[in-house]
Amino acid sequence: MSELVKFSRQDGVGVITVDNPPVNALSPGVPEGILAAVQNAQSDGAVDALVLIGAGRTFIAGADIKEFGKITSGERSAALGLAEVILAIEDSAKPVVCAIHGTALGGGLEVAMGAHYRVAVASAQVGQPEVKLGIIPGAGGTQRLPRLAGVARAVEMCAFGEPIKASAALESGIVDRIVEGDLLTGAIAFAREVIQRKPHKPRDRNEKLGDAANIFAAAREQARKTKRGMMAPQAAIDAVEAATTLPFEAGIKREAELFRECLFSDQSKAMIHAFFGEREVAKIPWLPKDTPVKEIRKAAVIGAGTMGGGIAMNYANAGIPVILKETTQEALDRGIATITKNYANSVKKGRFTQSVMDQRMGLLRPQLTYDGFEEADIIAEAVFEGMALKKEVFGEIDRVAKPDAILATNTSTLNIDEIASTTSRPQMVIGHHYFSPANVMRLIEIVRGKETSAEVIATSMALAKKLNKIGVLVGNCRGFVGNRMLHVYLRESESLVEEGASPAAVDRALYDFGMAMGPFAMSDLAGLDVGWRIRKEHKYPPTIADALCEMGRYGQKTGAGWYRYQDGRTPTPDPEVDALIEKLRKQRRIITDEEIVERTIGALIQEGAKTLDEGIAMRAVDIDIIYIHGYGFPVYRGGPMWYGKATIQS
Ligand code: T1G
User: Fold this and answer.
1) Is the bond leading into 437 cis (omega within 30 degrees of zero)?
2) Is 64 in the pocket of ligand 1 (CB under 6 A)?
3) How far is the CA of 195 from the centre of ligand 1 (A)?
């Protein structure tokens, strides 16, 4: 038996335990260990059934993603060695029960679906998240899942990759029982109940397979919209469709072909880079491992505007009581109304129940004073983006906050050290730069000032994880990493317009490249006046955007900016803007989409490289994660720095 897979006997049941921390991935040695245990048990007179369970915090969380690079580089064969293991489980003469806690994901769920039965604790989740890595299930998931759960559920899980709760898995036939109490005890009891029953093989269950052409058509359309530009979701739908049109073995063959196509694609390499990148950015190599992390039990947020309200929701969502302070009752009421609306929308969409909403609203304490601020472990400032006001507010919170409170600013461009200099405790000051809408966007740019203490940095990184966010640590400079790069990207976009391109053409080229939104539509959404005020404050040379602002065109919020917004949201090219551009444009020439992408993304990459040289960004992957999770850069291109590298290499 390999160290990673242990075998024991209990009440006539063989217990196969996978023990490969931290997530019981199917690393080399694990499939082999499971296979040996199942095969040996066939002739083991002391056991009549088998239970497969994971040690530690979870069941099997999938194939070992670290092995994929070795496959695509030819270092090891493409065979994951799982199909044989799953067939051995399925063909076992003795019933095999999989006992699921934590997550059964990817190859983990595929192994479980090879078993004759699955039991789970109520908190367990199961899923086929492979499309998030740019691949599809490659060990029979697209063939067995529709047989167990029906075509619609299988398409949804394989093409969109979201896990489902144990209760939904029970409902859809993936799981046979929710176990109360100890999982292993419950699984062994279940195994003993089914010893007399003839094990039925999931691959032989065709009763849930039927003509589902409309399901596939709808899913392809939805994937085209919500997974725009990605090949894996479409491939996953093709594979599940094969389960309804081909015999099992032929379906498995078709799945393997599609899996291989995806695995060797640039998209998958980029998305696996992003997967590990999300985890790497949490590691600060120069921060001593024993740096104390302060527990955040109480929070306070200053400013109940769009950002402040969203930030307060993050604390409430994490179960942390949060004071929300405003200067006027009217502004406070507006802020609370927006939070209430956001929560009600989530309840309506079934994301959580009314009682969860009530509990979170109960953690919010809206007020007009600093009462209670002396108890806050962190005070997050989210007031208007002006240095004078930020300094005034930090002067005030410096007087009311307790000595070890963290003072965080949500500034998106201003100098952290200058803000900190107004306090008696610059070592406690740090930037927590959220992205709008702050309760949705997962990124927090964590900006260290020159005096910010290691403990404040370590606590901020840990807090980001607690708030279910991705914290990326960056240095202090104008616009930090994200907005500094965005500034040159927007500047280059406007240069292209000055040279002959239309804003709509630039936006379309970058939208087709995969950006969530083109630069001009994005500027209109963010508001042109933000940049205008900053350019004026820093006496930057005048731009077309300045001329638009002088005409009162601030973007969506004024119904007009680079585009006109009849319905408030849909950008429509405006002849008035074309005329202004014509008047201000320096030259007119044909500009191709290729040139647009090359110059704008090129500008991003160059400025990114400068932030690396200056140590503002610690690693190229930090920049990639910032742009994927903060600026709508397509994950299947891996982020600007990964894309730059891949483009040069190709
Ligand atoms: N392979 C290798 N390493 C993995 C891994 C995996 N599948 N999953 C996690 N890790 C590492 C991770 O990098 C981190 O490392 C540590 O474990 C803890 O992870 C055949 C082909 C399970 C929900 O996509 O979603 O099966 O940073 O920080 O927040 O069809 O990890 O500590 O060095 O994320 O508690 C499909 C991926 C694979 C699941 C736990 N499976 N993992 O979240 O911990 S493809 C997945 C997760 C496949 C088959 C196909 C999450 C988690 P380090 P963590 P967490």
Assistant:
1) yes
2) yes
3) 34
Distance CA 393, CA 372 (A): 16
- Per-residue confidence (pLDDT) for residue 3, from 0 to 100: 84
Q: What is the pLDDT of residues 192-209, one digit of tens each?
A: 999 988 888 999 999 999
Cα separation, 553 vs 559, in Å, equals 8
Index of the ligand 1 atom closest to the CA of residue 58 = 22
How far is 576 from 56, CA to CA, in rounded Å? 64
Q: Which of 145, 132, 143 is nearest to 232 (CA)?
A: 132
Provide DSSP, 397-427. Answer: HHHHS-TT-EEEE--SSS-HHHHHTTSS-GG
Is 522 within 8 Å of 556 (Cβ atoms)?
no
> Is 0.85 topped by the overall pTM?
yes
Of 391, 509, 464, nearest in space to 625 by CA = 464
Query: Which tokens in the block code for residue 434?
Result: 């959220």
Measure the CA dihedral 30/36/37/38, to 10°: 110
Q: Considering the chain, what is the average pLDDT of its residues?
A: 95
Residue to probe by mutation, ligand 1, list 65, 71, 255, 258, most atoms within 8 Å of CB: 65
CA 433, 342, 531, 483: dihedral to nearest 10 degrees?
30
Helix/strand/coil for 569: coil
- Report pLDDT digits (tens) over 117-163: 999 999 999 999 999 999 999 999 999 999 999 999 999 999 999 99
